[in-house]
Amino acid sequence: MAGTDHSDHPLPSLDDSTAPVVILVAPQLGQNIGAAARAMLNCGLTELRLVRPRDGWPNPEARMLAAGADEVLDRARVFPSTSEATADLTRVFATTARRRDLNKPVLTPEEAAAEMRELARAQGARCGLLFGPERTGLDTDDVVAADVILHIPMNPAYSSLNLGQAVLITAYAWWVEGLCTPGRRLPDRGDPPARRTAVQALLRHLDQELDAADFWKSRSKRPAMWRTLQTFLLRGSPTQAEVSLLHGVVTALSGRRLDGRPRGAPRTRGLGKELETLGKRAPTRPAARGRQGKPRP
């Protein structure tokens, strides 16, 4: 359906800080990036981020399918990694069609849209919509690092969507949610939600201390165990104060090493020296005596 009525519906402001960001991870075709940009502007979304686009950026083929959404393409930014592309966001929704063995919330586009709108209203949170490559979708590490799995329910016998279609469905749900009265309301918390940079710093801190404490005894099981820990910590949508508190908890717990001494205390000089010192300080036992009180030979 072509045509846009600019008279009654002007284009949205490009500095809308409450609208979600669209992040395309390793997109393969410029045409698909253009189709995603067109879908975004249809629904009032204007901030596009690209992670390692296969054919580089800018890509002239993207404008062929953008159909006039050039302002979205002109403002698109490129990032070397998903973590850097999401660092300033509060909540990330990972779109995936495959079943994942992860204990994460799974929402439909409509449910995700309601949550994003309410997070923006109550906490000023900025959210992101994460999409994977056209052929393979998001890898497991990217899904683990997200807060929520966004699943688009389609015909189970044929659920294939191209990138532009997936972006349009999720963006349209966000747009329509803005036309309705929100149902679920989150409490207005004085403490702002933690940004991804703060949460990632906490995860790095925890990983370093677990490594120093020799927690990862089985290297083969480490990736799965670490994903479980990430999923657990990200599930609660921590605030900045909660992240700072957890930093303090990790620091306090890691203050006691294998010798049981607090951080900053003098180190032990080794087991041999310790036993030698204790031996010198131990009192001499009196010689055993017989029945007549005489020392035994």
Using DSSP, what is the number of strands? 7
Low-confidence stretches: 10-15, 268-284
Radius of gyration over C-alpha positions, nearest whole angstrom:
28 Å
Helix content: 25-40%
Q: Provide a count of the helices.
A: 11
Envelope shape? globular
Q: Mean of residue pLDDT?
A: 81
Q: What's the helix-strand series?
A: EHEHHEHEEHEHEHHHHH
Describe this structure in words.
The protein is α/β, with parallel strands linked by helices and 297 residues long. The chain has helices spanning 30-42, 62-66, 70-74, 82-85, 109-123, 140-145, 163-177, 196-212, 222-234, 240-253, 271-281, and strands at residues 21-25, 48-51, 77-79, 91-95, 106-107, 127-131, 148-150. The chain has eleven helices and seven strands. β1, α1 and β2 (48-51) form a beta-alpha-beta unit. α1 (30-42) runs parallel beside α7 (163-177) and α5 (109-123) crosses α7 (163-177). The protein is globular, with a radius of gyration of 28 Å.
